[in-house]
From TrEMBL:
Record family assignment: In the N-terminal section; belongs to the NnrE/AIBP family.
Name of this protein: Bifunctional NAD(P)H-hydrate repair enzyme
Name of the gene encoding the protein in the UniProt record: nnrD
Record keywords, A-Z: ATP-binding, Isomerase, Lyase, Metal-binding, Multifunctional enzyme, NAD, NADP, Nucleotide-binding, Potassium
PANTHER family: ATP-DEPENDENT (S)-NAD(P)H-HYDRATE DEHYDRATASE, ATP-DEPENDENT (S)-NAD(P)H-HYDRATE DEHYDRATASE FAMILY MEMBER
YjeF C-terminal domain location: 220-479
Binding residues annotated for AMP, in chain numbering: K392, G393, H394, H395, T396, G421
Co-factor note (free text): Binds 1 potassium ion per subunit.
Matching PROSITE patterns: YJEF_C_2, YJEF_C_3, YJEF_N
Domain YjeF N-terminal: 10-212
Enzyme Commission code(s) on record: 4.2.1.136, 5.1.99.6
Function: Bifunctional enzyme that catalyzes the epimerization of the S- and R-forms of NAD(P)HX and the dehydration of the S-form of NAD(P)HX at the expense of ADP, which is converted to AMP. This allows the repair of both epimers of NAD(P)HX, a damaged form of NAD(P)H that is a result of enzymatic or heat-dependent hydration. Catalyzes the epimerization of the S- and R-forms of NAD(P)HX, a damaged form of NAD(P)H that is a result of enzymatic or heat-dependent hydration. This is a prerequisite for the S-specific NAD(P)H-hydrate dehydratase to allow the repair of both epimers of NAD(P)HX.
Lineage of the organism: Bacteria, Bacillati, Actinomycetota, Actinomycetes, Glycomycetales
Length: 490
């Protein structure tokens, strides 16, 4: 598991580490890692630009007066020593980090008011983790005037809200962000994650000094492999988990097909379908056992309810039957609308529940739209309804009722397509049926769904929900084979 730490937590860790090191050591470690990544980027071929290394490349630095600007200037000095043409622009009056500025000029770099209009690489060293959201006017003007081949943010994209991921005002949009010591919430949450670009982490020794509980958790392949329940030699279709799917209708039979497709791609050994679209499900998936009503489905280890099954009285009755089950439940789509209208149906519920709202569904459940602090928004709904919440978006967030927040690192815009959520919900229910906890099932489902979207999108500009469902088995295989986890249950 990776994590993202708040600005305050990083400051505390830095203070502890700096007390053990000679003055300036931490900044030099950051600058060295930043310069190494910049050199690597300058060696790459950029579309429409002549390939070149550091020597002769034009580098522009937008430098603020704080340590972030100092990191950028020290890194630029290292590039200047290797033959880069470096121009540094103070963006807050004439204030810059004095020692770093002197190192730059000694290396042959220049402090200027007006840099060249074109550069191979632009270093954003305007604001660090202590900066307020928004950019100073001079930085905005310079960003608009400079044509940069690659924009590199120093630790965080200047202008974003570091702790929430909100972007309430102007901010740098980076191609690459070089983070020092740890990830920050803005790298993985909210609109700020869209400004981060590709994320590179430079180890400066903070690890032992960071709080063991990050503000935001980020799953990796190894986590999913450790959570995954592999079938053993004594397992059968029942012991692997039976998942029930209450979805679809005569009007929306495709929702039933897509939800069962997602469920079949998961680790459960048996899928039962309950609903009026049974004919369509049988036709597409003969391995699924179909009934007309939830009461007829028999015992299951987890339920999915909601995609395309309507919001009338009959649907409400079916939802009540699902919630009467002692098994964990995923509630999606129409089920969320019904919960918003009839919140009392959840009050007696003791078994785990996972809700999967997008922003409009969240508003129906919570009474107001999610704030730009999406991690806090998901956690607030999870606490209010005592459940796990998967808040969909360009960077999906999962929150448990005890306040634990996870950010999904694998999402992509192509997943915003009709039926994609039905596949996700069915797959998640299969994970629950196999024995995963609600929070882990939500985190794993979002992660693998995003990875499947990437597989489906390879070589294509557009994908469908059916494409994502077909790619899920490959996503699972690649993820589980990516790491060796001897302790995984088999």
């Amino acid at each position: 598991m990776d994590g993202a730490w708040s600005a305050a937590a990083v400051r505390r860790a830095e203070a502890q580490l700096m007390a053990q090191l000679p003055p300036g050591t931490l900044m030099q470690r950051a600058a060295a890692g930043l310069a190494t990544e910049c050199a690597r980027l300058l060696r790459e071929r950029s579309p429409g630009r002549r390939r070149r290394g550091v020597y002769g490349a034009t580098v522009t630095v937008l430098a603020g007066p704080g340590d972030n600007g100092g990191d950028a200037l020290f890194a630029a000095a290292r590039l200047a020593k290797r033959g880069a043409r470096v121009f540094a622009v103070p963006v807050m009056g004439e204030r810059v980090h004095p020692v770093a500025a002197a190192a730059l000029t000694r290396a042959g770099g220049r402090l200027v008011a007006n840099p060249p209009r074109r550069c191979d690489l632009l270093l954003d060293g305007v604001l660090g983790i202590g900066g307020r959201p928004g950019l100073p006017g001079r930085a905005i003007d310079q960003l608009a005037a400079i044509d940069a081949g690659t924009v590199v943010a120093v630790d965080v994209p200047s202008g974003v809200d570091v702790d929430t991921g909100a972007v309430p005002a102007s901010a740098v949009t980076a191609d690459v962000t070089v983070a020092f010591g740890s990830y920050k919430p803005c790298h993985v949450l909210g609109r700020a994650a869209l400004h981060t670009g590709r994320l590179v982490l430079v180890d400066i020794g903070l690890g032992p000094h960071l709080d063991p509980h990050p503000a935001v958790r980020v799953a990796r392949d190894g986590d999913l492999a450790a959570w995954w329940h592999e079938p053993g030699p004594d397992d059968d279709k029942y012991t692997r988990g039976v998942v029930g799917v209450a979805a679809g209708s005569e009007q929306y039979p495709g929702a039933a097909v897509l939800a069962t497709s997602g469920a079949l791609a998961g680790p459960a050994g048996y899928v039962r379908y309950a609903g009026t679209a049974a004919e369509y499900v049988r036709r597409r998936h003969p391995e699924v056992v179909c009934t007309q009503e939830v009461k007829e489905a028999g015992r299951v280890q987890a339920w999915l309810a909601g995609p395309g099954f309507g919001t009338d009285e009959a649907s409400l009755t079916e939802l009540r039957h699902v919630l009467e089950s002692p098994a964990p439940v995923v509630l999606d789509a129409d089920a969320l609308t019904l919960i918003g209208e009839y919140p009392s149906v959840l009050t007696q519920r003791e078994a785990p529940v996972v809700l999967t709202p997008h922003d409009r569904e969240y508003e129906r459940l919570y009474g107001s739209a999610p704030a730009e602090d999406r991690g806090a928004a998901a956690a607030a709904l999870a606490k209010r309804l005592n459940c796990t919440v998967l808040l969909k978006g360009h960077h999906t967030v999962v929150a448990s009722s005890d306040g634990e927040v996870w950010a999904n690192p694998t999402g992509r815009p192509q997943l915003a397509t009709a039926g994609s959520g039905d596949v996700l919900a069915g797959f998640m229910a299969s994970l629950l049926a196999s024995g995963m906890s609600g929070t882990r099932a939500a985190v794993a489902a979002a992660y693998l769904h995003g990875r499947a979207g990437g597989i489906a999108a390879t070589g294509h500009r557009t994908i469908t929900a059916t494409d994502v469902a077909k790619a899920l088995p490959q996503a699972v295989g690649e993820t589980l084979s990516a790491t060796d986890t001897p302790g995984r249950r088999r």
